[in-house]
Write a structure and sequence with these properties.
The chain has seven helices and five strands; from the N terminus they run ααααβββαβαβα. With 156 residues, it is an alpha+beta fold. It has a five-stranded antiparallel β-sheet, with helices on both faces. InterPro entries: DUF6495. It comes from Leptobacterium flavescens. This is Histidyl-tRNA synthetase.
Length: 156
Amino acid sequence: MKYTRLSKEQFKALHKEFINFLATQSITAAEWDTIKKEKPEVAEQELDVFSDLIWEGVLSKVDFLENSSENSMLLFKCDAHQFNLIAVKINNKDINLLTDEGFHWFQENIMHEDVELFTASKVYSEDKRLDIFKLIQQGAQIADGTLFNALDKVVN
């Protein structure tokens, strides 16, 4: 398995897709029930293969990621060959970027001495999707790029 198995909730949400996945392998509902009972290891393998297929599809569409904490934000743009990073660090412990109030302060005070902005880039390993997945496992969320693009105009 390349990524992680989908959660029970994710499988429920993707129930129709999983049925279609089994159908592409000519596995009927009755056959699936039999496999689960008589060959649980095969059922586990099918769940893993389906999970990887879903992850591959999702990860192939990721353009931006965000990872925020109380005093920092890591904003990633996933280009064809590299990550581009804009990092924000707040040097005032009274400001919490995870609150609406703290984030609003940041928006209004982006040039304040307590705000540090950094940029960097890193070429992907041989597997871009796995690199993106690792960032998601570390807490990054898939984003629409609004914040990255706004800050990119400030730092460039």
